[in-house]
Amino acid sequence: MAATGGSTKEAKPTLGGTKFKTRKRDEKVKLDVTSFSEQLIAGLRESGGNLDEVRRFLDNAGGQLDYRRYGEPLLDILVAGGVLAPGGGKVEGTAISPVSVFQCEPKVEAIRGHLVVMTRVLQRYKYLKKGLEDEMKKILKFLKGFQDSERRSLAIYTGLLLSEVLVPASILTSLLSEVLVKEGMSLQFVTLVFQTWLSEKNIGHVGSALRKAQLEARLTDFLPASQQSALLFDEHFSGAGLEVLVKYRRAQESAEKRRALKKELEELLDADSSSEEIIDRCQQHMDTAQLTDVDVTVLVSGLQVNCVIGQQCVYVCVHAVCVCVCSCGDVLWTVWSGTRRMSSQQSKHLNILWTTHLCSCLSVLEEHRN
């Protein structure tokens, strides 16, 4: 081959006219959402609005309509009545179903039938359960594109789904969108969700679901930014008849403050801090966190410290002073009960260390009493 410009590269051979055959399993059939929605909605129309007939139709049509490939439009139609476009509107050119959650009157009993239908569909076609979770996350982001009655029906339906554990509470994070929170839609929606949920299940069930979704400490985030305070949260939900949720939030807040105090005291004890500093820190937390006498006493009793002899003496003294500061007992009895937990070898050194720490603690205690 002749060289051009000093280059000796040879042209690579080509396979002109050769066709590569794609394996059948690798072929992707294009989705025909319009055709699917028309067939599905035609079957729903034939039910005449009878939810028992709807359930039977959906139960039998899964193989023919291929729910595995068309899971998203299926759930769009069952919830919103049509295939949803980005933003919440219906896709142009697709049919509208006469049977959907959005078509229902926003009342629990009216919507409960749709919960039964969805439960049956998920029992028969288990692969749709993850799809339902994704569907609810998506549809909650579109709240602004729905009418008020549709939002109310959707909120009740969401509460019922949560009560039956058909979806996790993590779907509620979609409501923390800045736009929805700012306009107050998130608060209005989640209030109705909690009202429905708590009418079906107790606060233990709700709290467990919120904890799994890591939402138990984020309840105030559903309020607009200018109103995100514990006081305004309590006022709003008490006014909505959800005092049990208010008590739950307060309990979570108190537990978080106790954990913070416990961690701080363990760090102070490990650092061999002075008794005065430890006691003052306890008092500060009691004032700011509104912890009760019993809260602090029990917390200090359960501290896990590196049991060096000097630190153990400090621990016993702090326990004693906390009990006395909290007016829950007698210092000498508490000190004696604490020293019983020490080994005989440790108690040999007690006389040397004890006097210093106890006198220091008692002097601080006297200041607190005065």
Automatic annotation (TrEMBL):
InterPro entries associated with the record: eIF5-mimic_regulator (IPR051245), HEAT_5MP1_2 (IPR057397)
Domain 5MP1/2-like HEAT: 20-258
Positions of the UniProt region annotated as Disordered: 1-25
One Gene Ontology term, aspect cellular component: cytoplasm
Name recorded for this polypeptide: Basic leucine zipper and W2 domain-containing protein 1-B
Protein source organism: Geodia barretti
